[in-house]
Predict the structure.
Amino acid sequence: MQNHLVLLPILLPLTGTAVGLALYRWRKVQAWWSLGVMLAALASGGWLLAQVWQDGQPLVFQSGGWAAPFGISLVADLLAALLVVMSQIVLSLGLVYALGAKDNVVQYPSFYPLFLALAAGLTGAFLTGDLFNLFVFAELVVIAGTVLTAVSDDRYGVEAATKYFYMSLLAATFLLLANGTLYAAYGTLNMADLAARIQLDPSQPLLPVGMALLLATFMIKSAVFPMHFWQPDFHAAAPTAVSAMLSSVVVKLGVYGFLRMTTLLFVEQAAILRGLLVVLGIAGVLVGGLSAVGTHNVKRMLAYSTLAQVGFILVGIGWGTPLALAAAIVFIVNHSFVKSALLMLAGALASRTAVKSASFAVVTGLGKHVPAIGVLFFIGALALAGIPPTNGFISKFLLFDSGLAGAQWTALAFLALGSLTTFIYTMRAFQRIWWQPPPAEVKLKPTGDRLLAPALLIGLVVILGVWAAPLVTAAQAAAEWLGQPAQYVQLVLGG
């Protein structure tokens, strides 16, 4: 059905960006305006999710009244609506964290407008039904993320932003080439129309090229092994409020791309893609976990952990059964809450140190002075390792259950090893920071970043571990919908 309100989750932060820039002289007003806009966008995303779930079919908006594939389509199906709500919850709490942060960067007149621009780009990327507009929205995310990292208080911020920009430029090049290749082969970039045409004529010689280019694009976007090497530097140097977004929800843009590739665009070719995703996922689980064990910085540890956790998700997408897809979707949501919370807690700990660093050389033993951070970090670490009663346990239980149902014994063995590795590096970090005696000469700042945002996220971690039914039910419904690409095509094209 046609519905103009599909635009709201995108238009609200986009309009808020422009108004926020006009409020640059009044920083506090600008900050609270941005939070209010983000909460309004979250409310509109929640409305979308409720409507889609209730109606059992997507809400579609055809811009300019042009029917697909001639106009620009926005499609809020259950997967897109769920990811919009997930990302906007994290983004809203990212702004709450920024309001209570001690970073100089949050006082810059462009910080909050750029944050809203990042939110608009990410939301638009989830809702667009067109590959070219996916490129446009993804570039908005890149521009905002690059600038927000470059102005970081960390002296390595410019270097990290440069790495992120050039890797994103490479991904943008791949995505543009994929668009050109697929358009040359099929004459359309509307995803529903493209899926229908590929199904009718899968023998086009440019099709494998377009698939490979899209695969490379989403590998970079989600920092999948071996395209992950830039990520630890980037997330360690970015402002905490920004890195908590980029390492939790922004990387899910690439994962979302893999879901659309295997369940909509290339259904007949999905077996090859899924086999490759399983291999890449297992490699990411092992490389990310082992790298996290050996790193020297809490934020870098969590960045490597993202590589490993995304690996778990890719394995679920690669198995491709309804249960595995549901597990992957639950994992996407739960990991976003856990990872953003842990990065905020690492930033809050670093904000209390004299040199403002999350290096283990600086924070070892300091936890005894900040027990509240320790309690929250411990719960988050349990969730990342998949220990009950947290949401991380639900994610891994569903994923392992889907693997057992499919008799994926070799992959399960590697995933079990990865889960053990996660427990080792998270507990090692907790032990070093909160159990070891602090240095005698330690001097902590009397105040640091506020804990409201990570505390609320950790609360969600526990709630979704104890009361997981709504999320699991929504994920199962989304997975069932993904298994019916013909309905997506029909509803978008209006046939």
Summary: The chain has a mean pLDDT of 91. Residues 4-493 form one domain.
